[in-house]
Design goal:
The complex is a heterodimer of chains A (166) and B (805).
Chain A lengths: L3 E7 L2 E7 L5 H8 L18 E4 L2 E4 L12 E3 L13 H8 L9 H14 L5 H8 L10 H23 L1
Parallel strand pairs in A: 1-5
Antiparallel strand pairs in A: 1-2, 3-4, 3-5
Helix pairs in contact in A: 2-5
Chain B lengths: L28 H5 L15 E7 L5 E7 L1 H4 L4 E6 H7 L19 E2 L5 E7 L2 H8 L3 E6 L6 H4 L15 E9 L2 H7 L2 E9 L2 E2 L7 E6 L6 E5 L4 H12 L6 E5 L12 H13 L5 E4 L2 H7 L3 E2 L2 E9 L5 E11 L10 H4 L13 E9 L14 H19 L3 H8 L8 E2 L5 E2 L4 H12 L1 H13 L3 E13 L18 E7 L5 E5 L8 H12 L7 E5 L16 H28 L6 E4 L2 E4 L6 E3 H10 L13 E6 L18 E13 L6 E11 L6 H20 L31 E4 L22 H13 L8 E2 L3 H11 L4
Parallel strand pairs in B: 1-13, 8-31, 11-12, 16-17, 22-23, 29-30
Antiparallel strand pairs in B: 1-5, 2-4, 2-6, 3-5, 7-17, 8-15, 9-14, 10-11, 10-13, 15-16, 18-19, 20-28, 21-22, 21-27, 24-25, 25-26, 28-29
The chains are: A alpha+beta (166), B alpha+beta (805).
The complex binds FE2/S2 (inorganic) cluster (2 copies).
One FE2/S2 (inorganic) cluster (FES) sits at the interface of chains A and B.
Chain lengths: 166, 805
């Protein structure tokens, strides 16, 4: 099958790659770039495990083709923690509130929450439920995830306030 | 020498516990949160090929021809296997009941939609799937066996012809004088129920990478495998090789809940590997494969139950008839779900006699598998509906009726008619906690008000037992004669005093490596960071079953504490030599080995280990200089099952009471949960935050079970729920806020008094939700007898309640 040339930025690194047009973005990230933190739970757009950020928006990477990512900027779960290993406030909040059990759904949740808090660091419970409604978790029953998102919002707000005063 | 395992927290050798019993953050989280944990689909081995499986589109058809020559020549393809290869290299799958297995690839006929027919190994999954399109299979469709009652008809088509019947097992178990109790009862209530197929659906499906050397026949299997040792034995049996040729390495997996499955797919990947000269072959099941034909589908049940009650509103007998549709073969071990209710047949009640009329039937559906709870959740759904029906009949409040029939605290250990022994419990206290927390009286008031407004509102109160720490003997009636399920751990100290614990199971979400670290850190009074937990593959690990049957928390605690104790004895012997004392004069306290009654005469763990490893000149003679010990724990006091299936099987019996309020939308039949409160008692909580997480997750699964999860087949046995658009698992918007209360009655028989709690709330939730639904419907003169009570079913009932129009 003929290949197409793409140019993408993933977690700040620029990649030039030749890919089959039918290759999904999820398979490109996992297989070609070895960024295996993005998980695949259904491959039909329902579970949200494969969620990544494309130009800052949460996207299901199983429903997008790698060729569609040409010229775009992508962030995966591997980009969240600092290079010295310090966890991102959202990750911290999930750890503190036991917002994960098996952790397979978690990268998708983290990125969906990331997008939410980027736009609104003080979301209502309703808005949180709205956003999380598209992410399936079979382990936690969601209660601890809701607690984690509230805590994450508080942490993100605190960081922003600190930054504003710096 | 018997090793004593402390049954109480106070028996640990420290003044103050720093880790055990406290909310401890999980050690496994940082790597999960950063995407570093290596799940099976992340594994890449040199030369690895990718497998795709061709599956039957028919529920029942004869295979008259198969041609794979084009696929073999397709780009990237290294190997193709069909039923002919399976005939050459495989045995029929081992099953429960015995003798209901087939080969991993269909040969003469297919028996369910999705049954594997051929498979391809290619350089990528994309190319493997391309090649499947080139395989030609000729089918001659046969009449499918769909309904288990029709399947029992001698004229029915047969799923497995050689068996001469579709009935896998039919037996009546009678425990006590049931007929007499029914005849002498003040009242007998009888009702029938239907529980439809549902299943685990962990967020990660099954996956494996298999490498089978065609010359040596050595087999290595990496996989998302819940029970590596059993899985290894299964592959050895499938492939007809000695068990010590198989090495299984499980990877952390994205949930399991008993329904990970994967046995067939792994065996197929093994065949492909052998044909591809031993190259590793990766098989990752996709969601549609999982939903269509994976190891998920459980509990397809038709029930009839009778409950006898005396003049004092005490239940005097329970009789249950179950026809369980196990699908095409016994390979998924779904039969154990029909046996497990024996471990808690009469629930939390003092019902003195019981009968179980059990029929297991084969049909052209996917072979049934286990799912969280493994059978009791539907059984308790039935028992608790019967309790409500009786309470309604006797005009007693359902909570009071349960209270009257609870096993009182002073009767433990309590043996139930089906033979198991419950370790301990405080059922009334749990009931009162749940009622208080829910504001039960207030809920009843609100309900009465709502009813005057014409709203359809109900309150359910249900109680159930969670059997904990499974034993094979619980499943003796379906062909599992073993007693005891060993779990081992090795604890070693290195020359710098750092501690490593080696175990045989992988992570799947319940935080067990954290638990192991807590236990060791408190035992030797070190920081949790000083303890590392390492997973071994089956060729190196001590005997291990892994998670399952609400056992691992208790079992691994026994293994780790036993190993710590053995290690402490070794270190004490060294300390005695160095401190010139007798070994029995040495005691371990707060991480120090000290000579009793001789203050200042003491040594630390690191110092002793260092001496063992680096100062052989100082060691007493005949000392084994390894600062390391292994302990293999099995539940004490288990017994082999008798003729009627009675055994001391599950070691612990956790108990819970859930109180639920629902409101039903009269226009849509949609059931909304407006209040959910629960109290539960699973003994000592070793890491309370983890226990709570298990409860919350299990409630969500129970709500899915009660209200919408269902594998639907049409009347020709075609599956209709093959994507997440059709099979509905709960989202955040389906799960209400939970109020939770905790009662702690430590088990007298287990390490630190903990009881099995991993399966948890799903034992009670479907029962409680359905009690609430039926409480709401009762004034309308209709009853929801079928689970799930999905909107269309409830709407049907509402329409019927209005009478013929
Ligand atoms: S894998 Fe993409 S939504 Fe499920
Ligand atoms: S933590 Fe397992 S699926 Fe969410």
């Amino acid at each position: 099958m003929s290949k197409a040339q793409i140019h993408v930025t993933v977690n700040g690194t620029v990649y030039e790659a030749a890919v089959e047009p039918r290759l999904t973005l999820a398979d490109f990230l996992r297989g070609d770039l070895n960024l295996t933190g993005t998980h695949v739970g259904c491959e039909h757009g329902v579970c949200g495990a494969c969620t990544v950020l494309v130009d800052g928006r949460a996207v299901r990477s199983c429903l997008m083709l790698a060729v569609q990512a040409d010229g775009r900027e992508i962030a995966t779960v591997e980009s969240l923690a600092a290079s010295d290993g310090r966890l991102h406030p959202i990750q911290e909040a999930f750890a503190e509130e036991h917002g994960l059990q098996c952790g397979f759904c978690t990268p998708g949740f983290l990125l969906a929450v990331h997008e939410l808090l980027d736009h609104n660091p003080d979301p209502t419970e309703e808005l949180i439920r709205d956003v999380l409604g598209g992410q399936l978790c079979r382990c936690t029953g969601y209660q601890s995830i809701l607690r984690a998102v509230h805590l994450a919002a508080a942490k993100v707000r605190a960081v922003r306030t600190a930054d504003a005063h710096a | 020498m018997a090793i004593e395992i402390p049954n109480r927290l106070e028996d640990l050798p420290v003044e103050e516990l720093r880790w055990v019993g406290r909310h401890v953050r999980r050690r496994e989280d940082p790597s999960l949160l950063t995407g570093r944990t290596e799940f099976i689909d992340d594994v890449v081995l040199p030369g690895m090929l990718h497998c795709a499986i061709l599956r039957s589109p028919f529920p029942h058809a004869r295979i008259t021809g198969i041609d794979a020559t084009q696929a073999e020549a397709a780009p990237g393809v290294t190997a193709v296997v069909t039923g002919a290869d399976a005939q050459l290299w495989c045995n029929p799958a081992r099953t429960a009941p015995e003798g209901w297995g087939t080969l991993c690839l269909a040969t003469d006929k297919v028996r369910y939609v999705g049954e594997p027919v051929a498979a391809v190994a290619a350089s990528s999954r994309y190319l493997a799937e391309d090649a499947l399109e080139l395989i030609e299979v000729d089918y001659e469709p046969l009449d499918p066996v769909v309904d288990p009652f029709a399947a029992m008809d001698p004229e029915s088509p047969l799923v497995i012809e050689d068996k001469g019947t579709n009935v896998m097992l039919q037996r009546v178990f009678t425990w006590g004088e049931v007929d007499r109790a029914l005849a002498e009862a003040a009242q007998v209530f009888t009702e029938s129920f239907r529980w439809n197929r549902l299943g685990a659906n962990p967020t990660e499906t099954f996956g494996a990478v298999c490498a089978w050397d065609p010359l040596t026949l050595d087999l290595t299997v990496h996989g998302s495998i819940q029970s590596p040792s059993s899985f290894g034995l299964g592959r050895a049996a499938d492939l007809g090789i000695p068990s010590n040729k198989v090495n299984v390495k499980s990877h952390p997996h994205g949930g399991s809940f008993g329904g990970k499955g994967g046995a067939r797919g792994a065996t197929i990947a093994c065949l492909l590997s052998r044909k591809a000269d031993g190259k590793p072959v990766k098989w990752i099941e996709d969601r549609t494969e999982y939903l269509t034909a994976g190891g998920s589908q459980a509990w397809d049940r038709h029930y009839e139950a009778s409950l006898a009650v005396d003049e004092d509103a005490r239940v005097t007998a329970l009789a249950v008839t179950l026809v369980d549709d196990l699908g095409a073969t016994g390979e998924g071990f779904g039969a154990i779900s029909a046996a497990k209710p024996l471990a808690a047949f009469t629930g939390p009640y003092t019902i003195p006699v019981a009968r179980y009329d059990l029929t297991l039937v084969a049909t052209n559906k996917v072979p049934a598998s286990p799912y969280r709870g493994m059978g009791p959740p539907p059984h308790f759904f039935v028992l608790e509906q019967m309790m409500d029906i009786a309470a309604r009949g006797l005009a007693i409040d359902p909570a009071e009726f349960r209270r009257r029939n609870f096993i009182p605290p002073d009767q433990f250990p309590y043996t139930i008619p089906s033979g198991n022994e419950y370790d301990s419990g405080s059922y009334e206290e749990v009931l009162d906690s749940a009622l208080d927390l829910a504001g039960y009286e207030e809920l009843r008031k609100l309900q009465a008000e709502a009813r005057t407004e014409g709203r359809i509102v109900g309150v359910g109160v249900a109680s159930a037992i969670e059997p904990g720490v499974f034993d094979w003997n619980a499943y003796a009636i379906v062909g599992m004669p073993q007693t005891g399920v060993p779990e081992g751990a090795t604890v070693s100290v290195d020359i710098t005093g750092m501690i490593t614990v080696r175990v045989g199971f992988a992570l799947e979400g319940q935080g067990q490596y954290t638990l192991v670290s807590q236990l060791v850190a408190d035992y030797f009074a070190v920081e949790m960071d000083a303890v590392r937990v390492v997973q071994l593959d089956t060729q190196s690990a001590p005997p291990s079953f892994g998670p399952g049957g609400s056992r691992l928390g208790v079992a691994i605690s026994g293994a780790v504490l036993g190993a710590c104790r053995r290690l402490a004895e070794k270190l004490a012997a060294v300390a005695a030599g160095l401190l010139r004392a007798e070994p029995d004069e040495i005691e371990l306290r707060d991480g120090r080995f000290r000579v009793k009654g001789r203050p200042g005469s003491e040594m630390g763990v690191a110092q002793l280990a260092g001496t063992m490893l680096a100062r052989s000149d100082l060691l007493p003679p005949d000392i084994d200089p390894r600062p390391e010990a292994t302990h293999v724990w099995t539940a004490p006091g288990r017994t082999a099952a008798d003729e009627e299936g009675r055994a001391k099987s599950y070691l612990t019996a956790a108990q819970a009471v859930h109180v639920v309020m629902v409101e039903i939308d009269p226009d849509t039949g949609f059931v909304e949960i407006v209040k959910y409160a629960l109290a539960d008692d699973c003994g000592t909580r070793l890491n309370p935050v983890v226990v709570e997480g298990q409860t919350e997750g299990s409630v969500a699964q129970g709500i899915g079970a009660a209200l919408f999860e269902e594998y639907v087949y049409d009347d020709r046995a075609q599956p209709l729920t093959t994507t997440f658009m059709d099979y509905l698992t709960p989202t955040v918007n389906d799960v209400p806020a939970l109020d939770k209360a905790v009662v702690v009655t430590p088990s007298p028989f287990t390490p630190l008094g903990a009881k099995g709690c991993g399966e948890g709330a799903i034992h009670t939730t479907p029962a409680a939700v359905m009690c609430a639904v039926n409480d709401a419907l009762a004034p309308l003169g209709v009853m929801a007898r079928e689970v799930p009570a999905s909107p269309h079913r409830v709407w049907e009932l509402l329409r019927r309640s209005e009478g013929p129009s």
